[in-house]
Amino acid sequence: MHRSLRTKHFRWNVCISGVYSTAAHTLRVKQQIKENRKRALLGGGQHRIDAQHKKGKLTARERVHLLCDPGSFVEYDMFVEHTCSDFGMEKQKFPGDSVITGHGLINGRIAYMFSQDFTVFGGSLSSIHAKKICKIMDQAMLVGAPVIGLNDSGGARIQEGVESLAGYADIFLRNVLASGVIPQISLIMGPCAGGAVYSPAMTDFTFMVEDTSYLFITGPDVVKSVTNENVTQEELGGAKTHTTMSGVAHKAFHNDVDALLQLRNFLGFLPLSNNDPAPIRICEDPWDQDVPALDTLIPQETTEAYDMLDVVYNIVDERDFFEIMPNYAKNIIVGFGRMNGRTVGIVGNQPKSAAGCLDINSSVKGARFVRFCDAFNIPLITLVDVPGFLPGTSQEHNGIIRHGAKLLYAFAEATVPKITVITRKEDHESYDVMSSKHLRGDINYAWPTAEVAVMGAKGATSILFKGKPDVSKYEAEYVEKFGNPFPAAVRGFVDDIIEPRTTRWRICQDLDLLKTKTLKNPAKKHGNIPL
Amino acid sequence: MCINVMLQNGYHGIYRAISTSSSYFAVFRTDPFDPNESRFDKILIANRGEIACRIIKTAKEMGIKTVAVYSMADSSADQLQPENHILNMERILEAVSQTGAQAVHPGYGFLSENAAFVGRLEEAGISFIGPSVEAITGMGDKLESKRLAQAAGVNTIPGFDGIVKDADQCVKIAKDIGYPVMIKASAGGGGKGMRIAKNDDDARDGFRLASQEAASSFGDDRIILEKFIDKPRHIEIQLTLCKGGDKHGNAIYLNERECSIQRRNQKVIEEAPSVFLDEKTRKAMGEQAVSLCKRLGYYSAGTVEFLVDSQRNFYFLEMNTRLQVEHPVTEFITGVDLVHQMIRVAKGHPLRLKQQDIPIKGWAIESRVYSEDPYKNFGLPSIGKLYKYIEPLHIPNVRCDSGIDEGSEISIYYDPMICKLVCYGNTRKEAIDTSIKALDFYVIRGVTHNIPLLRDILTEKNFVDGNISTNYLSEVYPDGFKGRQLTKTDKNYILAVAACVYARRDIRSYIFLNERVSTAKHKEPSHWKIVLQLFGEEQLCEINKLNGKFQVQVGTETITVEDNINLAKPIIEATINGDPCVMQLVSTDSFGKFQISYQGTNFHILVLSELASRFLKMMPEKPKLDVSKVVLSPMPGMVKSVTCKPGDTVAEGQEVCVVEAMKMQNSLAALATGKVKAVHVKAGDTVGEDDVLVEFE
């Protein structure tokens, strides 16, 4: 279709050179702009759009419109065309090429975005495609606004060869430079394979759409030829794989509409840049009242599990909690909530899963979240009930020391307001790790059920009284001594022992107090987190 | 004054103080407390939950110290059998001697009708706040009680005079009496271990299930049979008698309660008085009940239950030798505090009241608020944690007897009753209206509850007219309860409120209190075009915000809703077209799934912008679980038995396993004939709602 259009343009050009008329020229240019715009809006054409819909996916443009406030999207580079003249590509050009870029408003706030258009060359990344993305990223950095990438791309534009690879690298560089300056969010809404995966991997959050999105370095065909493994796209790099096993993605949504609406909601938790404070929304949920439900959450039996999410829901505004990685490393909970309207990052051990112990995956999950919050001025609320680090050869051999250190490093490094509540156990080295007073925790509370000890009573007494006859007697003594919040409280390691029902209003009060907190780490190029 | 006692091996002190929520027990008192009367110093309450709170309340008012015991089963999932706790007589006796209590109030259930327990207390010189061992023994056994009733000249139902040995005999006797027959636990009460049989198969199944339930609930699997009376009303007479009442004539009846609204023979709504009784019948029933008690030498509070047929013939059903769940309705209309009377009588005081002192003043209705799903068989247990719980006590003439607080967990180990909502009025209509209002303002979050059903019954024509029987539910809702049936206006109101909630959420998401201001296009919206979906039907809707009001265009109708909706409040007191209208905002999410409750029922509404709605239609449907190939647990509970194994071929309707929760046994059957592919549970497993138990090929 577009080839015939181009032929028509050519005829007009002949005409222009023959009889020169400025008025006609202006009209024709106008007409041409109109035509190109119309073509740009159609992407790869109606039948490709239909094919996209058939797969259960929205088009790049539909996605942008749903993401932005009505009528607020401002598009850049609608007229750019790829520059490749090999393999007959010069005859196939689409205005705007395979990505839509620009900025729009999300609940009235500015955000830059790109949306890869699978209907044009399978959304493949040409050099101009990359340049378009880089342009909006540069501008987002200038003004200080988030960048949202809606990824739906078959990969590099093979016809362009190294030009395309260079394009990826240009984006990667910008991802890195923007890291910690503006929030970067990737929503994978189709394939994202090969080198392309590293851009989402470097953004702050990677979300996926169930059943229609894939992320992998090498696809099932290559896997088959190299390792002889038979694996489907879904198993190799589907939403389930990445949100439960690999930890590459932070959350999955049911479909495009769900994903985009939730993304709008998610943006409301984040500041626009590292120069902005954590946003405060109008709070309709009274912040200054007791929450009696908190009093009964901790079971009487100290070994019995409970759901830390119940604590979270009962302290945040309106039980509204946006959990990050809800299905990966479930022994730690991370996510965003609001307290008296202000966004907070919540980190909590989850006794319901693996007794809430820290292991490699939960340490890494927690550490990355803490660093995000610290980078973007979001106060940290830490809910502690941790029996220790998970023992075992698998953990030790895979480097729990190195990975556990990440969480320790992240908490210690963080200069945002840090409020910690020990709900129950805090044993072992994990005591230090979980935003303890020693790591510059601003306000640390213990519930009456809190216990702070070097290790469980059984373990401790078996070491202390090795070989002695009635170890169980000493065990009781150990429990008596450390099975309560006093040892920590008398040393000032916790600031107060509080009734659980008061937790919400106390934290809200503290957050207000700490809003003027200023703390700076020593000047340095950057620290050296144990990666 | 409430002392919580820590007991070894399975008991511990109450973590939070017990509190009764209501400020009063009735509107007036016929027999006020006499501070000069001698009384116990301290009593122990061998029960839990609402009834423990209820007893403590009166005891406190009388100036008596109380000891409460609690079991670990309240919080611990490891302690599987409640019998190990509250029912454990030894532990209670230990607690009595530890705390120096002079008397024990057993509440209802548990040890309340356990003659051995009363005997042990007597031996220890502790008063039992209830009747004598003989009375409990005599009346506790259905068969024995029937004989005694007959001997006392009380009308009884035709039936088999003995214990049914096995299923075959059950079928034979049933045939002799003539179907339908009632199969019930000899030791039972409260509807547990009761089955109705309409044919031989029913009789066989009924015998087995009833005896199993009887064994697990009462530790006694003896079963009796009797004629089942069609269209019966359940009307009971409350009595109170002092010790030696047979000699001194000091025995009075406190009129009747009608408890005809029942599901599976368990009471749902009770009222006093009954619309059905005339003065003559009331007097005859009361006098028969009194004569039975006198013959027994009965003292303390007790209830004689009757079945009343359409001709006002009444038959003795059983006598409950304890305080009953539904006692508050009697307290409201007579002004007599039954717990007060029980404690006085146990102390040896005579009644100060005479029969002629007992009024019927006003009308009281008790709605039992249960943690259960009313859409499943009028109520299957549901469990969870009450993260939000607000009783409607701001409404006058409302009493809530409950033993739970915000944060309480409803477990599978006890009865699922959350609260007894008792509402009072000068007339039945007033009592009904107050009940409706109270239910509309009752906030329960975290468990599925039966308010939808209660609220619907209270407005149902037959109920309002007093045209009820124990078959009420199955007759009024022959296909099961399906939720509130909405008129067009109701539907539009719900949609309009959902639309306003959407608009309010949207406006709020635009307002940040601490952000750089953008001059270009930073305004929150004031006009919306959305699509609402309720019951799968779509409705395009336009909203305009004007002068603090939302103008909502639903179809051809324009509805005005005041902008006073607080998104954090559970109750929406909306003003729709100028009229007040109460709804509850149960939940919202950022996708647009809202739950709004109106007239008791929860409605699920999907609210999307026009664009999102159009796009959503293009999204593929997610595949659903084929339920004909699986048997799901209808409720959380414990697997009692599994009667199939992989490879078995089972017929449609054949039982594959039995799940027990809150002492109710539910036989689960295959939905289609097929071969068993996998059995995912074994006896003793704890299962959640909708867990897959058995899979078919």
UniProtKB/TrEMBL annotation, chain A:
Any one GO MF annotation of this record: acetyl-CoA carboxylase activity
Q: Which reaction does it catalyse?
A: propanoyl-CoA + hydrogencarbonate + ATP = (S)-methylmalonyl-CoA + ADP + phosphate + H(+); butanoyl-CoA + hydrogencarbonate + ATP = (2S)-ethylmalonyl-CoA + ADP + phosphate + H(+)
The record, for InterPro entries, names:
AccD/PCCB, AcCoA_carboxyl_beta, Acetyl_CoA_COase_Trfase_b_su, ClpP/crotonase-like_dom_sf, COA_CT_C, COA_CT_N
Q: Which residues form a coiled coil?
A: none
Broad enzyme group: ligase
Organism's domain of life?
Eukaryota
Gene Ontology cellular-component annotations: acetyl-CoA carboxylase complex; mitochondrion
Q: Which GO terms describe its biological process?
A: fatty acid biosynthetic process; fatty acid catabolic process
User: What EC number(s) is this enzyme filed under?
Assistant: 6.4.1.3
Report the pathway entry: Metabolic intermediate metabolism; propanoyl-CoA degradation; succinyl-CoA from propanoyl-CoA: step 1/3
> Which SUPFAM superfamilies does this UniProt record tie to the protein?
ClpP/crotonase
CoA carboxyltransferase C-terminal domain span: 286-524
Which parts of the sequence belong to the CoA carboxyltransferase N-terminal domain?
A: 26-282
Family named by the database record:
Belongs to the AccD/PCCB family.
> Self-association or partners: how does it assemble?
Acetyl-CoA carboxylase is a heterohexamer composed of biotin carboxyl carrier protein, biotin carboxylase and 2 subunits each of ACCase subunit alpha and ACCase plastid-coded subunit beta (accD).
What's the name of the protein? Answer: Propionyl-CoA carboxylase beta chain, mitochondrial
UniProtKB/TrEMBL annotation, chain B:
Q: Which cofactor does it need?
A: biotin
Q: Where would you find this protein in the cell?
A: Mitochondrion matrix
**Domain Biotin carboxylation: from-to ranges:** 39-478
Q: Specify the enzyme's EC class, one word.
A: ligase
User: What would be an example GO MF term here?
Assistant: propionyl-CoA carboxylase activity
Q: Which reaction does it catalyse?
A: propanoyl-CoA + hydrogencarbonate + ATP = (S)-methylmalonyl-CoA + ADP + phosphate + H(+)
One GO CC term on file:
mitochondrial matrix
Recorded hits in PROSITE patterns, A to Z, give:
ATP_GRASP, BC, BIOTIN, BIOTINYL_LIPOYL, CPSASE_1, CPSASE_2
Checking InterPro entries in the record gives: ATP-grasp, BC-like_N, Biotin_BS, Biotin_carboxylase_complex, Biotin_carboxylation_dom, Biotin_COase_C, Biotin_lipoyl, CPAse_ATP-bd
| Pathway membership, UniProt | Metabolic intermediate metabolism; propanoyl-CoA degradation; succinyl-CoA from propanoyl-CoA: step 1/3
Q: What is its main location?
A: mitochondrion
Would I find Transit peptide among this entry's keywords? yes
- Per UniProt, residues of the ATP-grasp domain are 146-347
Q: Which residues cross the membrane?
A: none
EC identifiers of the protein: 6.4.1.3
Q: Could you list this entry's UniProt keywords, alphabetically sorted.
A: ATP-binding, Biotin, Ligase, Lipid degradation, Lipid metabolism, Magnesium, Manganese, Metal-binding, Mitochondrion, Nucleotide-binding, Transit peptide
Pinpoint the Lipoyl-binding domain residues: 622-697
Whether Ligase counts among this entry's keywords is yes
Query: What's an example Gene Ontology biological process for this entry?
Result: lipid catabolic process
Say what the protein does. This is one of the 2 subunits of the biotin-dependent propionyl-CoA carboxylase (PCC), a mitochondrial enzyme involved in the catabolism of odd chain fatty acids, branched-chain amino acids isoleucine, threonine, methionine, and valine and other metabolites. Propionyl-CoA carboxylase catalyzes the carboxylation of propionyl-CoA/propanoyl-CoA to D-methylmalonyl-CoA/(S)-methylmalonyl-CoA.
Which PANTHER family does the record associate with it? CARBOXYLASE:PYRUVATE/ACETYL-COA/PROPIONYL-COA CARBOXYLASE, METHYLCROTONOYL-COA CARBOXYLASE SUBUNIT ALPHA, MITOCHONDRIAL-RELATED
This protein is called: propionyl-CoA carboxylase
Q: What is the source species?
A: Diploptera punctata
- Give the organism's phylogenetic lineage: Eukaryota, Metazoa, Ecdysozoa, Arthropoda, Hexapoda
